[in-house]
Design brief:
It contains 14 helices and no strands. With 354 residues, the protein is mostly helical.
């Protein structure tokens, strides 16, 4: 049985590991204009710096959690962080757009093994109840803190040391996390002797989503009926249908389809899809708008974005109290309404130079 002091140390080490994943998804936003100019990205290609990371992260997330259960959580987390460090270094050393996109995708892959493994260790370390609720609250604060640090640090680094340091900064943090993990965290015995991994499922869903994004990108350039666009959409549909078929057949699916029979789960996912998509799109275009149109420096751009993660962190910490006081539906409806209002007000921004 771990002492409380040891548990708290483990919690902060796990939070540091998760901080890396969130930091890297946010830090690059403010550096996008500098990356575009340095590596000579075409306009439509630039979005893949963000999208490549998100797609591999999301597509392999459940595979990462399953791998940790089978092969030991500490081992998988350490290897995931090591991979993240290596790909961060290579991303910072990118010499052209294809290399940057490929390394960002591999960063997302490493992150997909880090995030669920760290969370599963947290759940195994803290007992259900107030102890676990406190740990999860700190976990949420770290997530928003990583986003806040990302947009602010990304702006400062891009303006002072150059955009490559937005990736090099991950290296000392990752090394410190690995050293602490190996010293403090006990080895976790794998939970299953069945070594089946749904690798085909992870590949199908990731390539299907990539094909969909490529089709949308192609449509904006070549038109909706252009051959590359149509082929990409057909390929996306075929791959995603193959994914659904695969999940209905394998013994250990990444996504058990029966979960979607739970109305609250399906409704929550349908609600979060446009919200998260809109948030990612807003950060991407707002960064380009603020720096290229309004001619604001990268460091100040980071300050412009700072209220978003700070407010998310405050509300996340207060969420259990608000849920007990107001209930589920008022918070969901109120949150969605505020999100819609924020998007509408963003649309009113004037396109002019200051």
């Amino acid at each position: 049985m771990l002492k409380q002091a040891s548990k708290n140390t483990i919690l902060w080490i796990l939070a540091l590991s998760f901080f890396l994943v969130i930091l890297d998804s946010a830090i690059v936003n403010v550096a996008l204009p500098a990356i575009k100019d340095s590596l000579h990205f075409a306009g439509a290609e630039l979005q893949w710096v963000i999208t490549g990371y998100i797609l591999t992260f999301g597509g392999f997330l459940m595979l990462g959690g399953r791998t940790a259960d089978l092969y030991g959580r500490r081992r998988v987390l350490v290897l995931g962080i090591a991979g993240f460090i290596a790909f961060s270094l290579l991303t910072g050393l990118s010499v052209n757009a294809p290399m940057m996109i490929a390394m960002r995708a591999l960063q997302g892959l490493a992150g997909a093994f880090m995030a669920p493994t760290a969370l599963s260790i947290l759940l195994a370390t803290f007992e259900e109840g107030p102890e676990r609720n406190r740990a999860l609250s700190i976990w949420s604060i770290v997530a928003s803190g990583g986003a806040a640090a990302g947009v602010l640090l990304g702006g400062v680094l891009a303006q002072t040391l150059g955009w490559r340091w937005c990736f090099f900064v991950n290296i000392p943090i990752g090394i410190a996390a690995i050293a602490a993990l190996r010293r403090v965290l006990p080895a976790h015995i794998q939970e299953s002797s069945d070594k089946n991994l749904d690798l085909p499922g992870a590949l199908l869903v990731t390539t299907g989503l990539m094909s969909l994004v490529y089709g949308l990108t192609s449509a904006s350039q070549a038109g909706w009926m252009a051959t590359p666009t149509v082929v990409a959409f057909i390929s996306s549909v075929a791959l995603l249908l193959a994914f659904i078929y695969n999940e209905s057949r394998v013994a250990h699916p990444l996504v058990p389809l029966s979960i979607f029979r739970i109305r609250n789960v399906s409704a929550a996912n349908l609600m979060m899809l446009p919200i998260v998509a809109g948030a990612l799109g807003m950060f991407f275009f707002a960064s380009l708008f603020i720096q290229n149109i309004l001619q604001v420096t990268p460091a100040v751009t980071g300050l412009y974005f700072l209220p978003v993660p700070v407010i998310i962190g405050i509300i996340s910490y207060q969420a259990p109290k608000l849920l007990n006081k107001f209930g589920l539906k008022p918070l969901l409806v109120g949150g969605a309404a505020l999100t819609g209002l924020g998007v509408y007000l963003t649309l009113l921004m004037l396109v002019h130079r200051i």
